[in-house]
């Protein structure tokens, strides 16, 4: 609960203006409030209070003859102090739990993350995003090498985050599966608990010294190092971009183009989502707080997901500042916790 800066009457009026605008996307007038909400105040009194809220920067008037809508400051006060967080419906809970049922574990980690974005998009009706774990911060759990043909092996590298990297390597010699099983056992025993960030030339040279598998192994190990080095950066998945067309704010072509430009530019999305990693748990950025002119009419609700108390990444939703915060906050927070729990079990 945030610090209270307004008296109870102004708070109530700001709350109903915000709730009504979120629901209707239309500026809210004093007569509508008096008729709909039964506050025991005349339209004239409500109008005066709304004028005070506008003068204080909590409301704004988009057109001379229109009602009022919340400003970014008004939304921030609403989220911090006035918002009544919604509960998930039974159908929503059942849908989320079914998607994270341990019986339905996807074969690949990326598939799980992509499925998570679809869950968020389906429940919130806004574009959803997920930031994958920073692979360089993960630690090796084990490595399994499989012979594909005479010159190719498949490396299955399993990290402590549950992340599995499939790496196809072209080898200088043909390995038998028995040879690869011995190499897998050796590498797993030596690398277990080592972070990918620390897996560099020094460790590779040490492994070459300790191993008794010949020069071909040295070359294969170098190929593995190079391949993993290309996978250290986090990635981002997006789903539900089409949902933005349902929002009246983005019927204007220029605003729509700006937002779609952001959603299609991975570098900017990574920057936006990396902001979420600066704070554990739930985070809400409204309008100019996002620090990008292209999304000044948007808000982001994000939450970190964790395994064993370690932050791996973040999930989030990007929508108009008029988004249904009370619902979105509940969905994003719960899905992030479910994902973390699923990965812990995995």
Classify the fold: give the CATH topology of the largest domain: Beta-Lactamase
Assembly state of the chains shown: single chain
Please provide the ordered H/E string of secondary-structure elements: HHHEEHHHEEEEHHHEHHEEEH
- CATH H-level homologous superfamily name of the largest domain: GAF domain
Supply the number of structural domains. Answer: 3
User: Got a strand count?
Assistant: 10
Radius of gyration: 26 Å
Count of DSSP H/I helices:
12
Are there runs of 5+ residues with pLDDT below 50, and where?
none
Kindly describe this structure:
There is one protein chain. With 346 residues, this protein is α+β, with helices and mostly antiparallel strands. It folds into three domains: 8-82, Arc Repressor Mutant, subunit A, CATH 1.10.10.10; 90-133 and 234-345, GAF domain (Beta-Lactamase); 136-229, Heat-inducible transcription repressor hrca homolog, domain 3 (Enolase-like, domain 1, 2-Layer Sandwich), CATH 3.30.390.60. The protein is built from twelve helices and ten strands. The chain has a five-stranded antiparallel sheet, sandwiched between helices. Helix 1 crosses helix 3, helix 1 (8-24) packs across helix 4 (72-82) and helix 5 runs antiparallel to helix 6 (109-124). The longest helix is centred in the last third of the chain and has 21 residues, at 325-345. The radius of gyration is 26 Å and the shape is elongated. The chain starts with 7 loop residues before the first helix and ends with a helix. The mean pLDDT is 86.
């Amino acid at each position: 609960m945030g610090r209270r800066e307004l008296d109870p009457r102004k708070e109530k009026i700001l709350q109903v203006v915000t709730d009504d605008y979120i629901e209707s996307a239309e500026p809210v007038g004093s007569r509508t409030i008096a008729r709909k909400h039964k506050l025991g105040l005349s339209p004239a009194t409500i109008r005066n209070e709304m004028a005070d809220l506008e003068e204080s920067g909590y409301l704004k008037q988009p057109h001379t003859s229109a009602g009022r809508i919340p400003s970014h400051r008004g939304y921030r006060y609403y989220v911090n102090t006035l918002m009544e967080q919604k509960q998930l419906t039974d159908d929503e809970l059942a849908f989320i739990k079914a998607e994270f049922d341990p019986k339905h574990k996807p074969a690949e980690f990326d598939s799980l993350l992509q499925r998570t974005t679809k869950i968020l998009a389906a429940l919130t009706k806004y574009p959803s995003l997920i930031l994958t774990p920073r692979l360089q911060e993960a630690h090796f759990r084990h490595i399994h090498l499989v012979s594909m043909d005479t010159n190719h092996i498949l490396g299955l590298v399993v990290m402590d985050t549950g992340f599995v990297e499939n790496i196809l390597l072209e080898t200088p010699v043909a390995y038998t599966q028995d040879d690869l099983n011995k190499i897998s056992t050796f590498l797993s025993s030596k690398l277990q608990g080592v972070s990918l960030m620390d897996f560099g030339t020094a460790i590779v040279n040490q492994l070459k010294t300790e191993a008794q598998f010949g020069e071909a192994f040295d070359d294969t190990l170098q190929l593995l190092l190079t391949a993993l080095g290309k996978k250290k950066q986090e990635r981002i998945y997006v789903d539900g971009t089409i949902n933005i067309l349902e929002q009246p704010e983005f019927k204007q072509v220029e605003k729509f183009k700006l937002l779609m430009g952001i959603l299609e530019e991975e570098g900017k999305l990574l920057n936006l989502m990396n902001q979420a990693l600066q704070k554990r748990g739930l985070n809400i950025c409204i309008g100019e707080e996002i620090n990008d002119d292209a999304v000044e009419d948007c808000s982001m609700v994000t939450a970190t997901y964790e395994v064993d108390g370690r932050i791996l990444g973040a999930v989030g939703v990007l929508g108009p500042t008029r988004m249904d915060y009370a619902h979105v906050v509940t969905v994003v927070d719960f899905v992030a916790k479910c994902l973390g729990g699923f990965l812990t079990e995995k």
